[in-house]
Amino acid sequence: MIRDKNLPLTETVYYILLALTEPAHGYVILQKVEELSEGQVRMAAGTLYGAIENLLKLKFIQPVASEDSRRKVYVITDLGLDILHQDLARMQQMVAVTRSILQ
């Protein structure tokens, strides 16, 4: 299988995509990333919004309608889900190979 040029995802991008499996705005994304990573990944707002711009350009996420016009809400796209699954499979293969060698 040919690896997508966007792989591997950075840890930050991986958790952002994972956080956006449900619609969320910036502050909620920051909270979910920290929660999902068990405090291992903490981002400043500037880092998050730079990543969001890049993910929008790649079409991995998209904006969705929100009742609060002051907040931009995003959700992962089918393409984003696909890339997330591909990176999961890549990491699972790495873990399997590592386990087989280290055991």
Brief characterization of the structure:
This protein is mainly alpha-helical and 103 residues long. The chain has 4 helices and 3 strands.
Secondary-structure map with pairings?
Elements: H1 11-19, E1 24-25, H2 26-36, H3 45-58, E2 61-64, E3 73-76, H4 78-102
Antiparallel strand pairs: 1-3, 2-3
Helix pairs in contact: 1-2
Shape: globular
Low-confidence stretches: none
Alpha-carbon distance between the two ends: 27 Å
- What is the number of strand segments? 3
Order of helices and strands: HEHHEEH
Question: Which structural class matches the secondary elements?
Answer: mainly alpha
Q: What count of helical segments does DSSP give?
A: 4
Widest β-sheet, arrangement of strands: 1-3-2
- Relevant CATH superfamily: Winged helix-like DNA-binding domain superfamily/Winged helix DNA-binding domain
Give me the CATH architecture, please: Orthogonal Bundle
Query: How confident overall, as mean pLDDT?
Result: 95
Topology-level CATH name: Arc Repressor Mutant, subunit A
**Main pleated-sheet profile:** 3 strands, antiparallel
Report the radius of gyration as a whole number of Å. 15 Å
Beta-strand residue percentage: 5-15%
Work out the count of structural domains: 1
Helicity level: 55-70%
CATH class: Mainly Alpha
